[in-house]
Amino acid sequence: MRNDFLWGGATAANQCEGGWQEGGRGPAIVDVLPHGERRLAVMNGTCDYRSLSADTFYPGRQAIDHYGRCREDIALFAEMGFKCYRFSISWSRIFPDGEGERPSEEGLRFYDSLIDELLKYGIEPVVTLCHFDIPLALVEKYGSWRSRRVIDCYLRYCQVLFRRFQGRVRRWITFNEINMLMHLPFMGAGIRFEEGENELQVKYQAAHHELVASALAVKLAHQIDPESQAGCMLAAGSVYPYSCRPEDVWESMEKDRETYFFIDVQARGEYPSYARKLFEREGIQIAMEPGDEELLRENTADFIALSYYNSRTVRADGQGEASGGNVFASAKNPYLKVSQWGWPIDPLGFRITLNALYDRYRKPLFVVENGLGALDTLTEDRTVEDDYRIGYLSSHIRAMMDAVDEDGVDVIGYTAWGCIDLISATTGEMSKRYGLIYVDRDNDGNGTNERIRKKSFWWYKDVIASNGESLKRDSEQ
Ligand code: BGP
Fold it and tell me: If you measure from the C-alpha of residue 356 to the centroid of ligand 1, how many angstroms do you get, rounded to a whole number?
């Protein structure tokens, strides 16, 4: 791998910080995502969080207290040899209501110290500007990204961060998994639906606002710091046809396009023709302002960040067994094993996905999420023997290295998702653990929050120290 390859780990404020009312932080979407059976309905916008009972448990409010313990966490990341740490900034720590002229100095100071701590160890901060945590005030006041007004709020927030952290943060990601908007619209973009509404219309209009906001953020980042880079991000995972029936192949292409749509705009700078046709067919009218199209064209993303957990499979006839997976469910692929949460495990699919994205966009790729959510057990001598996680990660990293070495794909970095155990986005569970570091906390919020190194901690340290070569040695043995 290239010498400056960015090995590291990734988290998101909404799943690890906690401290939901500390430092003057305002409420955000994550604070109203409950644990338990209503979570999905709230995330997909069909259940209004205001209808939940008073004794509801919201795991994101305390999470793993990264807010209070980030120094300790960063020291552990440094011990593993991280070259970079991807985290997100909580918008409502900076602007408690999501908007305004004056940002919260206390919020900014928290990220000052987090970033300085990283730099002290030579770890590059990679910052996601919005990772599923839109300030609740913007949801209540404007209907979130339904409204064009939110573009200005987002831009003001970006401006404050770009100026404050100029020279210290060089890589920004405008929106986490922007395509999540299509699948979990409340979690992804703060969108709730009225009964009988044309949901597709609402989603694509909100998407347009996010796409414009993203292009404006790229422009602003370059204006404020010409050395900085701003990338887009998608929840990736190529879609396979269930069979070679042309109908299945067609369906897989359509499903891929649902995801590519966002990056087609962000990386190529224009609405793809298949989307324009879809809008015509579905009677969707995107309200644009003069200059929007030019803006999108002139401010494409510098790099493409992605999460990869699994490939997907579709059948045109919708028959057969279903399978789980990140973002949307698909048909069961009989050739793949699945995780304890039913997500397919497909390292070659990772190589396929990286190739497909690079062929399509010819921009540097940055893998900012990949990992295995699994149940862990603490042993008597207080560690976790997570060979299953090591197996998943090593097969996926090897597949990525093949994409680079054998296929010539330009990958600039890899950050293991949930490098420290945190709250699962989709289930709200603590027991769905991704970490190389164990956190003593359970699904009900009990525990000491103690951090404990897992076996994978030492394994990943070797991977980084050898720039990936240790994996090749392992496979030769
Ligand atoms: C991605 C999100 C992350 C993370 C990950 C794993 O979609 O960007 O925030 O949570 O998926 O998903 P989960 O936590 O549901 O297992």
Answer: 22
* Residue 425 Cα to ligand 1 middle (Å): 5
What pLDDT score was predicted for residue 477?
63
pLDDT in tens, 123-167: 999 999 999 999 999 999 999 999 999 999 999 999 999 999 999
Residue with tokens 């680079």: 404
Is the per-residue pLDDT at 325 higher than 80?
A: no
DSSP 142-186: H-GGGSTHHHHHHHHHHHHHHHHTTTT--EEESSTTTTHHHHSHH
CA distance 433 to 371: 10
**C-beta 421 within 6 A of ligand 1:** no
Task: Return the SS3 of 372.
Answer: coil
As a whole number of angstroms, the distance between CA 345 and CA 338 comes to 5
Which amino acid is present at 435? G
> pLDDT by residue (tens digit) across 222-270?
999 999 999 999 999 999 999 999 999 999 999 999 999 999 999 999 9
Taking the centre of ligand 1 as the mean of its atom positions, its distance from the CA of residue 433, in whole angstroms, is 11
Q: Whose CA is nearest to atom 9 of ligand 1?
A: 425
Ligand 1 contact, 307 CB (< 6 A) = yes
Task: Check pocket membership of 349 for ligand 1, CB cut-off 6 A.
Answer: no
For residue 426 and ligand 1, the question of a CB distance below 6 A is answered with yes
**Is 72 a catalytic site residue?**
no
Contact 248, 360 (CB under 8 A): no
Return d(Cα 407, Cα 387) in angstroms, integer.
29
Residue with tokens 């090897």: 398
User: What are the structure tokens assigned to 258, written together?
Assistant: 């649902």
- Give the pLDDT score at 474: 74
Pocket of ligand 1 contains residue 424 by CB under 6 Å: yes
Cβ neighbours around 370 below 10 Å, total = 24
Residue showing tokens 């997500």:
343
Q: How far apart are CA 38 and CA 46, in angstroms?
A: 10
Which one from 124, 210, 251, 369 is the annotated catalytic residue? Answer: 369
CB 409 within 8 A of CB 365: yes
The catalytic residue among 117, 177, 210, 429 is 177
Ligand 1 atom closest to Cα of 235? 7
The residue to which tokens 């420290």 are assigned? 420
Residues near 92 by beta carbon (within 8 Å), at least 6 away in sequence: 25, 26, 27, 28, 98, 133, 135, 136, 137
What Cα–Cα distance (Å) separates residue 140 from each residue in 98, 145, 165, 174? 11, 11, 30, 22
Q: Is 369 in the pocket of ligand 1 (CB under 6 A)?
A: yes
Paired residues of 88 in beta bridges = 128
Where are the strands (E) in 318-477, listed by range?
Answer: 322-323, 330-331, 365-369, 411-417, 437-439, 451-453
Ligand 1 atom index nearest CA of 422: 14
Output the CA 426–ligand 1 centroid distance in Å: 7
